[in-house]
Amino acid sequence: MSLRRLTAVLGTALLAVGLSACASPGGDGGSGDENAPIRFGAPLPETGNNAQYGEYFKQGYELKLKEINEAGGIGGRPVELVYEDSQSDPAQAASLAQKFVDDSSILATFADFGTPAAAAASPIYQPAGLVQFLFTQSASDVTDPGDYIFATWVSQEYEAPRLAEFALEHGDTAAVFYHETDWGLNTYGYFDEGAQDAGLEQVYTTRRAPTTVPCC
């Protein structure tokens, strides 16, 4: 499956999971009006280095949104997504998180693309009691801010060591390139531990700025 298709599928799946978790029969969907739309915040990179991933997210969201609303919405109420351009920038993501927190019509939010942006928003959502669903974030500490932060991806604490074992199945040595971001450092730390335990020799390692390769 191509990265583009996978990302769109993840967007569709996240919307389905979010609606299932948040749209309980007794809830008001963020509004006292029982006929008002159920609204979710959807920060994503519409511009900047990761804009292509924001477009893939939106394709997945819109696919599921159309299906849900054509079937009558949730409890007879339509569902809306409030898109905001984060540029996958932590400062912008934090600003948008506060904007969603201040909007009482927002029931929950979906995570931005990339761990740095999502992690910058989590400490704002948590004390406000606004749910944040993470679905491309896999750093081991992404849910540490608290019980309103939910991750759906396997943590790198488990995934990265398996990658080292997989590499060893195809050779005795490896050259490793990783992002110079919190996510990259976190992931490489677990990969390095796994490589040492498995006996995989790293003949070359280097960090890369996130602008040179797609950012996670």
From TrEMBL:
Swiss-Prot/TrEMBL keywords: Amino-acid transport, Signal, Transport
Gene3D superfamilies noted in UniProt: 3.40.50.2300
Name of the protein in its database record: Leucine-binding protein domain-containing protein
Organism listed in the record: Microbacterium album
PROSITE patterns per UniProt: PROKAR_LIPOPROTEIN (PS51257)
Span of the signal peptide: 1-23
Entry superkingdom: Bacteria
Family of this protein: Belongs to the leucine-binding protein family.
Segments forming domain Leucine-binding protein: 37-210
Keyword Signal: yes
GO biological processes: amino acid transport
Any Pfam family: Peripla_BP_6
Keyword Transport: yes
